[in-house]
Every structure is written in C-alpha cells, then in structure tokens.
Amino acid sequence: MNLDTPYADLTPDCLLNAIDSLGMRCDGRLLQLNSFENRVYQVWIEDGSQRIAKFYRPGRWNDAAILEEHAFTIELAEREIPVVPPLSFNGQTLHHFESHRFALFAKQGGRPPDLEREDTLEWLGRFLGRIHAVGASGEYQARPSLDIQNFGIEPRNFLVDGDWLPEELRPAWISVADQALDGVNHAYLRAGDVQTLRLHGDCHPGNLLWTNDGPHFVDFDDSRSGPAVQDMWMLLSGNEADVRRQLAALLRGYETFREFDDRELHLIEALRTLRLIHYSAWIARRWHDPAFVAAFPWFGSVRYWQDRILELREQVALMQELPLI
C-alpha cells in the first residue's frame, strides 16, 4: 500500500467484500459519511438493518492503539454510558481485509445538542463525569498523551522543518508560535500536577448526538490520556459571561459523579492553543490525500497563515489572563 494514497484501492467492491467477509451480507447500498482522517460509510445489510463501517487510516494508529480505544468504549458501554462501541465478530472488534483494517458499529441517530440550554449541559456533564470516572480507573499503554510535546512542540517543528510556511510570514509565525508554546508551558506550571486520565479527546458538538433519551458520545478515534478539562472546553462558546454560565452548568452535572480539580481551569486556553497548532500540522501531514486538498483549498495560502498568526497572538494574550472560576 502507498501511504501517500492509502485509500486508492478501497473501491466499493473492496468495501462491500470486507463486510461480507464477516458474514454480514450487504445489499449493495452504501453512503460515505463526513470523515477526513478515516473513511467511514453507512452500509445497508440484506436484512434491512444498517451499520457504520470505519476503515482506519494506515500508519496512524497501530493495532494495539486501536484495540485500546475499542476496549475503553466497550468498558463504558458495559457501565451503561451512552457510547457506540465496535461490534464483535468471532470475539474480534478489529478486522483485516486485503490491505485495510476496519471495524463495524451500530448506526446511532440523533441531532446536535442544544448547548444554549443549561439542562443539556448538566446532562452532558453528568455523563462526562461517569466517562472520566471509568477513564481514571485504567491507563493507556499504546496511545500517546495529549501534552505540550505531542500537540505543540512536535507539530510546530514539523511545520517549520517541512517548509510549509510562506517565506514572508515564516519569521512572524515562528515567533508567535514560540510565544504561544511558552504561554502553554506557563499555564501548565500554574495548574501544577493535575491528573491525567483516559478521555474522549475530541469532545466537540459534532461528536455528540442528542435524542429524547439524552446524549450519545461517538467517535473515540482521538481518545488519549490528558486532563479532564480537555473534554469540556470545546463545549463552551460565546462571550465571557456565556462561557462562565455554560461551564458552571457542565460542572454541576460533572461533580454529581466525579470531583473536578479547579486548577485545570488554567489549562483551557493552553489546550485551545495546542489544538490550533496541531490542527495546521494535521492538515499538512495529510496534504497528499486528495480529500484534504478538496476540503481545505485555502491551506498554505498567505491569508491562511496570516489568520493563524493573529489567532495565536490572541491566544498569547488570553493565556495571560486569570482563568475562569
């Protein structure tokens, strides 16, 4: 397999044959879902049911790391926490077909949560508290941590060494990125020795499905070890008063099941900063994938990097302010 074009041979026939190899006969219908990192499809089975098939990007996670994520979501589901774990066939959740690795999941419907409602945020907070209580009971061995090195320094160096920056903006971006990483480091020093635990890792509204029975947490593909507040800050938006109200509602629900360490509030803007740097490097790493070229045509332009410089300057200022309380 050519890692520059990892999905070139994932044809519809290959995909359907992979699922058929598990003893599930497809009726031929499939729908590609919105996913850049992996390839995800909704497939129809001959009995009229539907499944979600995820084909993992080669070279990203090794088998052990994927199986750790599977084990975590299965553990959560066994505690009646609303996640969507992989389906097991002959005792296995990760399957191989030709050059591809894949897993099947039940199809979970739902709509985006209304994060303007405090009762919705409390509900989410209660389940986050339960997820983190389970997450704190074990450790990842194969999955890396969400930390300054992995999400900040390494992607910063990748962008600089790979010559992704326009020459006229190169000094400015490097300068502000280094200032931002220095601010992240100081934020971690102010927070002190906070606990790290197994997280969802990418808990933004797009990975939450809401039904009349409440939330479902989906797509644990970015699950890592890190501070609990990582699974909260992406649910906050608006002006300072809005964010304080939203955070208070989340924590009311969260602390029903698990105590929150207030020192982690020092990390909200630091984690946002790391995500911004990591995101640019993520697009650059995947630029050989035609799906990324089509989805991010503005990447690499002077305007793109000008906006990133302004973004990081704002983060430098925000990290110098007092944390939310």
What does this structure look like?
It is built from nine helices and nine strands. By secondary structure, it is of the alpha+beta class. It folds into two domains: 12-106, 2-Layer Sandwich (Phosphorylase Kinase, domain 1), CATH 3.30.200.70; 118-318, Transferase(Phosphotransferase), domain 1. It has a five-stranded antiparallel β-sheet, covered by helices on one side. A two-stranded antiparallel ribbon has the order 6-9. A two-stranded antiparallel sheet has the order 7-8. Strand 2 and strand 3 form a beta hairpin. Helix 5 crosses helix 7 and helix 7 packs antiparallel against helix 9 (302-318). The radius of gyration is 21 Å and the shape is globular. The model has no long low-confidence stretch (mean pLDDT 95).
Q: Secondary structure elements and their pairing?
A:
Blueprint: H1 12-20, E1 26-32, E2 39-45, E3 50-55, H2 63-78, E4 95-97, E5 100-106, H3 118-135, H4 148-161, H5 170-191, E6 197-198, E7 208-211, E8 214-217, E9 225-226, H6 240-254, H7 268-285, H8 290-295, H9 302-318
Antiparallel strand pairs: 1-2, 2-3, 3-5, 4-5, 6-9, 7-8
Helix pairs in contact: 3-6, 4-5, 4-7, 5-7, 5-9, 7-9
**What is the CATH architecture descriptor of the largest domain?**
Orthogonal Bundle
Structural class: alpha+beta
**CATH level-four homologous superfamily name of the largest domain:** Transferase(Phosphotransferase) domain 1
Order of helices and strands: HEEEHEEHHHEEEEHHHH
Reported for the largest beta sheet, the result is: 5 strands, antiparallel
Distance between the termini: 51 Å
Proportion of helical residues: 40-55%
CATH fold topology of the largest domain: Transferase(Phosphotransferase), domain 1
Strand elements, count: 9
Give the class-level CATH name of the largest domain. Answer: Mainly Alpha
